[in-house]
RNA sequence: GGCGGAGUAGCCAAGUGGUAAGGCAGGGCUCUGCAAAAGCCCCAUUCGUCGGUUCGAUUCCGACCUCCGCCUCCA
């Protein structure tokens, strides 16, 4: 079977075929964070999804160039920079660093390129100039430059590729109507915003005067620069479909005037939102968790990653702490099994057992069906545990099983659980308990076990002696 | 109002025109001094509701109900 992925352009699951004639290189652009505040785990759901896709493409032998932008200029940022009397760079630098820290904690692979909007002003200006030259953009009386959807359509281009648009049926927000009245048409959007006093020190020179880029143009400029005029994959959260991605297509295809049959992006994919108590997690509703909130509750980045990876990317997913607790237990089951294999395998080295990777690939080829993939993993865990319990696994077989898991985990990216550094006082208690057990003083040994529990450790008596684990 | 998505056991969640994967929780047993871990067994005659097509539908079609998202900054 071949890899199939859902494409928002066609609303169908399609065979994924790279543009590269050799079928090897894949260009992948992900809409990254706007660094105006701490990101919440709803935001990170999308990044974990893009990480999963990248890793799976690599697992399938493709050579992925992964680009994720950092939006470091935007209305909210400008407002806060002004309020806090700081500079754009200081303000966004802080949140970018925090973002990347969380990104790493969730064990996402760093994109190969992390372009910043503010570092691509010349490319943005050049793109707008192309649109003006083609007559698709215009400078309005307020000095800002807008994209004309009417002119764009007049060029034979289609506006409304990702969503069905029916402007008559749309509820045009008050904000759009009152705020940007200089536009020729309500649906037109800003490419370059004329500088206003509230912008403070945040502005760049342009052929149209001082100002700053509109929201959508940065992604067009940066993706074209780093991935070319036509590339394979563009990803983001479902809320970006409209207007952001629709406008990106319009700007890019409008400016590039691509030959017939070619398009800006071949394959668009959108991750569904994370919900909290059945509602969208968002800053404005205040019902969000940041990664640091969850870390403070004692959960690890890898447990959160696991939870986010158990839901299909196109399914809305209701985030709850109960769900996270259940995920912790499920993950521990895998860890327990893999840990035993690791112990048995020792230094033995074997090629991977074929069954798990085969079932895994079958599941993931179907538009990243992670539920089926986890089903394969847990079937494998049960099988492996059975063999372990029966003493049927020797070093080489354990090594082969372990290698199979490693292959799969290159995609899931869970890695090993952090190894426990057992404090001396805990070790002392373990020894004391063991001595009591030898002396058949079980009352005493149970008291010590309770003491260990109070310290946050469980002790397991195995054939090879006692073993402690952090609770 | 327009557009899109979803309703499967206590919870999470796959799936198929031929009779329901997996995880968590729960119950019983084995192992254990007792536990833990692991193993074995049990846990949806049923897939929002009502119709239709069919030999047969949870899976296809229609209507309805409910929920969510987008249409406005937003992953």
CATH superfamily of the largest domain: HUPs
- Strand order, sheet with most strands: 4-3-9-10
Query: Major beta sheet, specifics?
Result: 4 strands, parallel
CATH fold-level topology of the largest domain: Rossmann fold
Give the proportion of residues in helices.
Answer: 40-55%
- What is the count of helical runs? 16
CATH architecture of the largest domain: 3-Layer(aba) Sandwich
Structural class: alpha/beta
Instruction: State the end-to-end CA separation.
Output: 42 Å
Number of domains: 3
Average pLDDT level? 91
Total DSSP E strands: 15
Reading off the top of the CATH hierarchy, the class of the largest domain is best stated as: Alpha Beta
Give the overall shape, derived from the CA principal axes: elongated
Poorly predicted runs: 171-180
Rg is: 27 Å
Query: What share of residues are in beta strands?
Result: 5-15%
Keywords:
471 residues, alpha/beta, Four Helix Bundle (Hemerythrin (Met), subunit A), four-stranded antiparallel sheet, RNA-binding
How would the blueprint of this fold be written?
Layout: E1 4-7, E2 12-15, E3 25-30, H1 41-59, E4 63-68, H2 75-83, H3 88-105, H4 121-133, E5 137-139, E6 145-147, H5 149-154, H6 174-179, E7 189-194, E8 211-213, H7 217-227, E9 231-237, H8 241-256, E10 265-271, E11 274-276, E12 279-280, H9 291-296, H10 301-309, E13 317-319, H11 321-345, H12 355-365, H13 370-389, H14 395-412, H15 424-438, H16 442-454, E14 457-462, E15 465-470
Parallel strand pairs: 3-4, 3-9, 9-10, 11-13
Antiparallel strand pairs: 1-2, 5-6, 6-7, 7-8, 11-12, 14-15
Helix pairs in contact: 1-14, 4-7, 4-8, 7-8, 10-11, 11-13, 11-14, 12-13, 12-14, 15-16
The chain binds one RNA strand of 75 nucleotides through helix 1, helix 6, helix 8, strand 12 and helix 11.
